[in-house]
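To close the section, here is one more complete example, presented without commentary so you can practise reading it yourself. The ligand is iron/sulfur cluster.
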Amino acid sequence: MSDKPQELVVISGKGGTGKTSIVASFAALADQVVLADCDVDAADLHLVLEPKIVRRESFSGGKRARIKSGHCIACGKCEEICRFDAIYFDGPGNGKVDKTFRIDPIACEGCGVCAWFCAEHAIEFEPAVNGEWYVSDTRHGPMVHAKLGIAEENSGKLVSTVRKEAGAIAQQRGLNLVLIDGSPGIGCPVIASITGADLVLIVTEPTLSGLHDLGRVADVARHFEIPGMVCVNKWDLNPEVAAEIERQAQDRHLTVAGRVRYDRAVTEAQIRKQSVVEYQSDGCAEDIRNAWACVERNLSAGANRNG
Ligand code: SF4
Ligand code: SF4
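Output:
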């Protein structure tokens, strides 16, 4: 068997499918796991796992321009060329002009054009701090998670940072699995969540949008040649659509990991800051246990193939 820890990524076509509840339960069921919350735009795994932060790091995902008002001669060149309308003529005066130009840090996309064209070298172009990432202890093992600053983007790079750190911790501590709560959707953050992973579990709901989303996420996983599984959450809310999702999953060569029934215990467990498998042993907790057993079998089969 390979020494490299395996990576299981749990994803969904959109937020609100119950993906994170399932990840929290898997964390409770798995042995020897490192958790990675890569849903950095809406991280909420910490609400159930109550991590105790042991390391905190700043995240810089890009650069940002800033005008040094003392050097600006108010020529207006930067405002003229900024395609993002991020530059305003309302900066403080200096000994040369009554008003200078100012850059709105939220509107600035960090392209650097203004700094390049300012003949006075009055524009600094420096790394911007866009958020933070953390290593924490939880009752189910170490966890790497992150928070993006307000209105910040570039979460794909932050997702990659979280994954990389989680993998490094698993390797250092001899833990054989990184369990990743992936970003929803099919954009850059989800691609950063799944690229190079060993297995993807797609959590979906039995709705027409769930059916549609399954196709989109499955296409992304197939594009990156990652074996995929599907779990229909709250399947009993619409058994016909649940069956259709499973049929389409099989057509796409995705393994059906199981069905999880609708259960109010999920909310009750969340209120108590527990995963549902810690809160109860029957109901949907039993379904999640069965799904986990299926996922584990697929991980073992993958490890044996690659070992
Ligand atoms: S280009 Fe430079 S000198 Fe001209 S307004 Fe902008 S910051 Fe000021
Ligand atoms: S770095 Fe680009 S986006 Fe930001 S103010 Fe300068 S020209 Fe505008």
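Once you have examined the tokens, check your reading against these statements. DSSP finds eleven helices and 13 strands in the chain. The mean pLDDT is 89.
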